[in-house]
Design brief:
This protein is an alpha/beta fold. Helices cover about 30% and strands about 25% of the residues. A hairpin with a 2-residue loop joins strand 6 and strand 7.
Length: about 200
């Protein structure tokens, strides 16, 4: 539902109670997804397990009807045969034309560092908090985007426009290297999308 703010002509979106309830009902799914993503150690440097996490995301999003594109960032800083910079873009078309909303998150995490009291790739749930590298930046955010999109699709099976979710390489090292490569390649992401 779109409403005009009473003191301006700007539109603002108001989430229906049904969508909020659906998101809240997926709390356990959000925890499990965040834990699964944390347990795939995508430490950068050097750039480990990008293909593994992209395949995980692709398989998850296919189940919700998303079309998947896997993009290797050939020529990007850090890309090599040993550490290929894989990215994933998932797109779900609505039932009619409209705007696209794109959720972008990077899939890599910084070095582990010192001082951990739990396994940095264990995803332990302790007193309602998930512990592990990437829970706040950015695997938790990626999981939240996916859960929110799945909840939206559950309560709004017919919608206008499109939803895209991407997991991009090297967000913690050299920036989001995938965007210029997708544009050069002519991919659907992120053209026509609001991020």
């Amino acid at each position: 539902m779109i409403r005009l703010h009473p003191k301006s002509k700007r539109r603002r979106t108001v989430m229906p109670d049904k969508l909020i309830a659906e998101i809240e009902n997926r709390r356990d799914a959000l925890i499990a997804l965040t834990q699964d993503l944390v347990r795939i150690p995508t430490q950068n440097p050097p750039g480990d397990n990008y293909l593994e996490i992209c395949e995980y995301l692709a398989n998850r999003l296919k189940k919700s009807g998303f079309q998947i594109e896997m993009v290797r960032a050939h020529g990007a800083p850090g890309d090599s045969d040993t550490y290929p910079r894989w990215n994933v873009v998932a797109r779900r078309e609505g039932n009619s034309l409209g705007e696209c909303v794109h959720f972008n998150s990077h899939i890599d995490v910084v070095e582990v560092g010192r001082g951990w009291t739990t396994d940095p790739f264990g995803g332990a749930l302790i007193d309602g908090k998930i512990y592990g590298r990437g829970t706040c930046d950015m695997k938790g955010g990626l999981a939240a985007s996916i859960i929110a999109a799945e909840a939206f699709l559950a309560v709004t099976p017919t919608f206008s426009g499109a939803i895209e979710i991407s997991g991009t390489a090297d967000g913690n090292r050299v920036g989001l290297v995938a965007w210029p490569i997708w544009r050069k390649k002519g991919s659907s992401a992120p053209a026509g999308c609001s991020m």
